[in-house]
Amino acid sequence: MNRKPVYLAVYDTLADWETGHATAHLARAGFPVRTVGPTADEVRSLGGLRVRPDRALADLRPEDAALLILPGADLWDAGDDLAPFARAARAFLDAGVPVAAICGATLGLAREGLLDDRDHTSAVPFYLAASGYAGGGRYVEADAVTDRGLVTAGPTEPVAFAREVLALLGVYEGEALDAWYRLFHDSDAGAYAVLQQAAAE
Predict the structure, then answer these.
(1) Cβ pair 12, 75 in contact under 8 A
(2) What is the distance, to the nearest Å, from the Cα of residue 38 to the centroid of all Cα atoms in its chain?
(3) Cα–Cα distance between 2 and 32 in angstroms, integer?
(4) Closest-CA residue to 121 (of 101, 91, 149, 94)
(5) pLDDT, position 124
(6) For residue 126, what are the contacts with CB-CB under 8 A and spacing of at least 6?
(7) Is the pLDDT of residue 1 over 70?
(8) At residue 57, what are phi and psi to the nearest 5 degrees?
(9) Which of 5, 85, 88, 122 qualifies as a cystine partner to 32, CB 3.0-4.6 A?
């Protein structure tokens, strides 16, 4: 099956551990994973990884993608340097293409107004409240939340974040999705057999 690429946003100080489960399992399911940066210049993650983006943000079009993933980064808290990625998220959602944001990226989306009318989560409610956004009443105390094509999660929930992403793109569903989560979140060895059976079908 020919799938559109998933675009992972990369920028200086990105929290490289937050999206690994999602991108690895999307790639295994046949989704090409590409990186998109502020420009084509190399960036460096919090873990010290150097990444040269496949594409600059200005050249990214929603119709060419299956999903946009926005990881956390210190830069989300430091100012407006990453605001263009939040604006890109708006363009994606307006075009009916899903977006997944974790950790500090949720703050960027709150500033952009994208959480005002969607159920969402983050690290803690007051973190987003500092943005002055109007969506406080839609905050959900959950590991990860999906609402109308937008996945949000807090910084300690990369596996729950991935679960929502995999469900959104139809990689796993039902019992297989539950087994995937139990295996990677709860270290439930019994879930492996369920996944193997699902892969064989």
Answers:
(1) yes
(2) 17
(3) 9
(4) 101
(5) 97
(6) none
(7) no
(8) -55, -40
(9) 5
Spacing of C-alpha 72 from chain mean position: 9
Q: Output the CA torsion 124→69→88→46 (10° steps).
A: 70
C-alpha 9/C-alpha 76 separation (Å) is: 13
What residue spans of the chain are helical by DSSP H?
20-28, 74-78, 83-94, 104-111, 125-129, 158-168, 174-186, 190-200
pTM: 0.97
Q: How many angstroms separate the first and last alpha carbons of the chain?
A: 16
- CA distances 66 to 53, 92, 96, 109, 129, Å, are 18, 10, 10, 19, 30
Residue with tokens 């059976």: 197
Nearest to 167 by CA among 22, 15, 6: 22
Q: Is the pLDDT of residue 198 over 90?
A: no
Which tokens go with 132? Answer: 């002055």
The β-bridge partners of 43 are 51
Helices (H) and strands (E) in the chain, counts: 8, 9
Torsion of CA 99, 23, 197, 184, to 10 degrees: -100
